[in-house]
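L-arabinose transporter ATP-binding protein (Clostridium symbiosum), 52 aa
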Amino acid sequence: MAEEILRVEDLTKIYPGGVLANYNINFSVDKGEIHALVGENGAGDRVIIRPS
């Protein structure tokens, strides 16, 4: 079994005024894996990296 080095569960970001950026995002990264986060401008991909 691979060693899990990062786990994100139920990540949700709602901006003031009720603007929903991301809802219930879940993912994990195992040791040795390479992942890419890709999204169009305004898709909410930056919010996963910097949720605050």
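Helices lie at 45-49. The longest helix spans residues 45-49. ok done for today
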